[in-house]
Structures are given as structure tokens and as C-alpha cells.
Amino acid sequence: MFLGFDTSNYTTSCAVFDGREIRQAKKLLTVKAGERGLRQSEAVFQHTVNLPPLLQQLDCSDLQAVGVSTRPRSVEGSYMPCFLVGEGVADAVAHTNGVPLYRTSHQNGHILAALYSADRLDLIHEKHLAFHLSGGTTEALLVTPDRDELIKAQLVSSSLDLKAGQAIDRTGVMLGLPFPCGKELDRLSKNSTREFRVKPTMIDGNCSLSGVENKAQQMLSKGECREDIAKFVLTYIAETVSAMLQTLLQEHGDLPVIFSGGVSSNSLLRETINSRFQAYFAAPEFSLDNAAGCAVYAYLKENQ
Q1: How far is the C-alpha of 31 from the C-alpha of 46, rounded, in Å?
Q2: Sequential DSSP letters for the chain
Q3: What mean pLDDT is reported for the chain?
Q4: Quick check: 288 pLDDT over 90?
Q5: Could you read off the pLDDT of 54-104 as tens digits, one per residue?
Q6: Per-residue pLDDT at 158
Q7: Tens digit of each residue's pLDDT (9 = 90 or more) over 175-224
Q8: Cα dist. 41→9, 50, 79, 87, 281 in Å?
Q9: How far is CA 59 from the centre of its chain?
Q10: In terms of Cα–Cα distance, which of 64, 150, 73, 152 is closest to 101?
Q11: Does residue 36 have a pLDDT over 80?
């Protein structure tokens, strides 16, 4: 059995992987009504409270290795205090059980969880493109095999300002939805019958999303309905991601593409991408922040 931990800014998560199936136990962090995020000190406190009861929900017998996310990305200087909680518990569990501990990044965990969900773990041995779309990240990565880390993700395109998840959450809070707002904004948008034609703002292969928040505020001040505002914002994001992908395929060739991160679970985004490209999406439970990829990482490292 392989155990994974991930303590991101919005979800406490642990998971076990037996080489075939994954079982997860996770809990969203609590954000007060009307607020758009958490201070790191509050996230650390909630993770500390959440982890013990979550771990008790999983069968951790016959433990062979532990995997944990210790930083947002596998780049120099990438750091967030909330990941210290998962790392500390993972270190204690590995030490007391006398098994190896394998450290990776939150981003690599997202990619591995998505590849597992899409039944394409074979892509760790091939060059491919990976989109990581979340509250703090709107990035396209060129992923290549790596002896030490299994995969190495090189940033090839990103948002220059507002991130897709930020645009969704800020719009949702503006419309009175609970934070994080992705699921409810998706649901709201399905009640709109309007069709929007948008032109994404692209700069040297990167995108800009700051305009979508301003436009949403203008629509709200003019009295336009919440459903139309939700659909406009999600359409804008979907068209922007589509433009990013089109540019990357032209530059890097016809590579496999995998989508991860909470924003990737949005139904309008999936419909837009699938209508134009051949791409793989993680199931929603493997798109949102989760420890599944860390458990998979431990399994792959142990069997390397």
C-alpha cells in the first residue's frame, strides 16, 4: 500500500494506492462567507485539525512507501507554509513504519493524478503537454521524463495577471456564491441561453485574464442576470485556454495533452476543448486538489 499526503491552500487530502485503485479522504478548508481566500496561518491550523480524522478513514496496513507534496512547483524558491503540515505528518508516518518517504510538488501531483485518472500513466515516459488550471495557477507545461523526479514540467505558457480560478472565484463571490465558487458558477452558467463571442487577449503565447473580471463587474452593474454573467466568464476562460493550446500545438507539434487542476473540471471548458482537440481530462475527483498523485508518485518511485 502506498500513502499520499497533500495539504494545499484549500484542501486537506490523503490517499492510498494499491497499484490499481485509489481511495481518497479529503476535506475542503473553511472560508468565511464573502471572503476570497485564506491566510496561510489559518490554512495551516485547519490542516493540522483535519489530517488525523481523515487518515483514520483509510486502510494504511502493509505500508510500502509514503509520498507527499512539499511545495507548489518543482522550481527554485517555490514555497508555501501550508505544505509543511502534510510533510511533517508524512515524515512521521514513514519513520514510524520504516518505509521510504518520497517528496514531490503539488503541481507534479496534479499531473500524475490526472494521468492516472485518464489511464495514461504511460505518458510519464513521453513528452507531453499538461495544463494546470486552478485558483493560483493558469499554466501550460511541457512535461518530459526525468530520472530523479519521474517528470519535469517546464513552463511554456501562462496567465500574465489574473488566474482562471481567481476569475471564477471573484465572479462567484460577486454573485453571492460560496467560496470556492467553481462548482456553483458552472451550475449557474447552464441556465443561460445566451451565446458569447469573445476574443482572448494573447501576448507572445501567454494570456491575460484581468479584463474578464472588469467585464463581469460591468455586466452586474448594468443589471444583467447572474446566469449570463457566469456563462460569459466561463466562455472567456474556455476560449482563452483553447487559444493557448492551439498556439502550443503549432509550436511543439501534435503532443498528447492532459488537463489537471480544479478549473479543468468545468463542463463548458471541457466541451470547448473536446470539440476542437484530442485531450485527456481527469475525472472531477482527480482534478481538484488531492493526494492521489502523491500516492502514485510513491508507487512509481518505489518501483522505478
Answers
A1: 11
A2: -EEEEEE-SSEEEEEEE-SS-EEEEEEEPP--TT-----HHHHHHHHHHHHHHHHTTS--TT--EEEEE-SSSSSTT---TTHHHHHHHHHHHHHHHT--EEEE-HHHHHHHHHHHHTT-GGGGGS-EEEEEESSS-EEEEEEEEETTTEEEEEEEEEBSSS-HHHHHHHHHHHTTPPSS-HHHHHHHHTT---------EEETTEEE-HHHHHHHHHHHHTT--HHHHHHHHHHHHHHHHHHHHHHHHHHH-S--EEEESGGGG-HHHHHHHHHHS--EE--HHHHSS-SHHHHHHHHHHHT-
A3: 95
A4: no
A5: 999 999 999 999 999 999 988 889 999 999 999 999 999 999 999 999 999
A6: 97
A7: 999 988 999 999 999 999 999 999 999 999 999 999 999 999 999 999 99
A8: 10, 14, 14, 16, 33
A9: 25
A10: 64
A11: no
228 residue type, one letter? D
Question: From the CB of residue 190, how many other CB atoms can be counted at a distance below 10 Å?
Answer: 12
